[in-house]
Design the sequence.
C-alpha cells in the first residue's frame, strides 16, 4: 500500500467535492454577503439623512417643517437630538432687510427745515440790528435818530465844518449781527447861541446819540433852562428827562457848581434814542463772547 495515500487528512483541509466544484464557492460567498447586507445595511443611510435635513430646512422652514425637524431621527436617542428651530431665523429676516432701505425722507425734510429755520432766525436778527425805523426821535438841532453816517458827514462838510470820524468795526463770525461804531466830532459848533464841541455817535450806521459840550457852561445852562424847562435838577446835580424813546441827560447844574468845579466835572447835554441804546447793550450781552470764536 502507498504511504502517501494512507496518511490521515488534516481536519482543516476542505473535502474533495469542495475543491472540485469551485462555482459552489462563489455562490456560498454571495449568500454570505447578502446575509450581512440584509442584517447591517438598513441602518447605514439613516445618519446622513438627519444631518442633511437641518441645513436645508432653515431657509424655508414653515411651522409644519419645524415640528418635523424636532422629532428624533431613527437610531437617535433623545439626548443626541438636534433641536435648532428654523422659524426664529426666518423671523429676523425683516430687520436685516430694513437696513438697506433708502433714507427716511421725512427725517431729511425735518433736518432741512431746522437748518432753514436757523438761517431765517439769523437773517432776522441781522435785520433787526440794522433796521431803519420809520419813527425817529428828535435829537440835537436838526438831527434825528437813524440818520446815516455819510448823510451827516456830507451835510457838515457842506456847512463848512471839518468833521473828524473815528470808526470801530468789530469783526464777527457768520450769522452774528454787525457791531459797527462810528463817532463824528465837530469843533466850534454853535447851538443855542453857545459854541462848543459836537459829538455824534452811530451804531451800525444809525445815529443814536448827540452830545454837546459847551465852552461856556454857565451860558449854555441858561439856554438849557429856557429851551428845556421840564428838565429838573436832581440831588446828585445831574438831570434827566425821558419821553417815550427819547432820553435827555445833562450835567450842567453840577458842572457849574463849586463842587463840580472842584471835581472838574465835564459839562454836557446829550440826546439819545433809547431803542438803539438798548440794542447796543443787547448785542454786548448776547454776542460779545460768541463773536470772538
Sequence:
Amino acid at each position: 500500500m502507498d504511504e502517501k495515500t494512507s496518511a490521515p487528512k488534516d481536519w482543516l483541509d476542505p473535502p474533495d467535492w469542495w475543491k472540485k466544484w469551485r462555482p459552489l464557492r462563489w455562490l456560498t460567498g454571495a449568500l454570505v454577503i447578502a446575509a450581512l447586507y440584509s442584517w447591517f445595511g438598513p441602518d447605514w443611510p439613516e445618519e446622513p439623512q438627519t444631518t442633511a435635513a437641518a441645513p436645508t430646512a432653515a431657509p424655508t422652514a414653515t411651522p409644519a417643517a419645524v415640528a418635523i425637524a424636532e422629532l428624533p431621527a431613527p437610531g437617535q436617542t433623545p439626548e443626541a437630538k438636534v433641536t435648532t428651530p428654523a422659524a426664529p431665523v426666518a423671523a429676523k429676516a425683516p430687520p436685516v432687510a430694513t437696513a438697506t432701505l433708502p433714507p427716511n425722507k421725512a427725517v431729511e425734510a425735518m433736518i432741512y427745515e431746522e437748518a432753514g429755520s436757523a438761517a431765517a432766525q439769523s437773517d432776522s436778527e441781522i435785520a433787526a440790528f440794522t433796521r431803519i425805523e420809520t419813527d425817529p426821535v428828535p435829537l440835537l438841532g436838526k438831527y434825528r435818530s437813524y440818520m446815516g453816517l455819510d448823510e451827516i458827514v456830507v451835510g457838515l462838510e457842506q456847512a463848512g465844518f471839518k468833521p473828524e470820524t473815528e470808526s470801530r468795526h468789530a469783526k464777527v463770525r457768520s450769522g452774528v449781527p454787525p457791531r459797527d461804531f462810528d463817532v463824528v466830532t465837530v469843533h466850534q459848533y454853535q447851538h443855542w447861541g453857545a459854541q462848543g464841541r459836537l459829538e455824534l455817535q452811530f451804531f451800525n450806521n444809525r445815529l443814536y446819540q448827540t452830545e454837546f459840550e459847551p465852552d461856556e457852561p454857565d451860558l449854555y445852562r441858561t439856554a438849557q433852562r429856557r429851551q428845556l424847562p421840564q428838565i429838573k435838577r436832581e440831588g446828585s446835580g445831574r438831570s434827566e428827562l425821558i419821553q417815550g424813546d427819547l432820553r435827555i441827560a445833562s450835567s450842567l447844574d453840577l458842572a457849574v457848581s463849586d463842587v463840580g468845579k472842584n471835581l472838574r466835572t465835564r459839562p454836557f447835554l446829550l440826546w439819545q434814542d433809547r431803542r438803539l441804546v438798548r440794542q447796543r447793550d443787547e448785542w454786548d450781552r448776547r454776542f460779545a463772547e460768541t463773536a470772538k470764536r
Summary: The radius of gyration is 55 Å. DSSP finds 13 helices and seven strands in the chain.
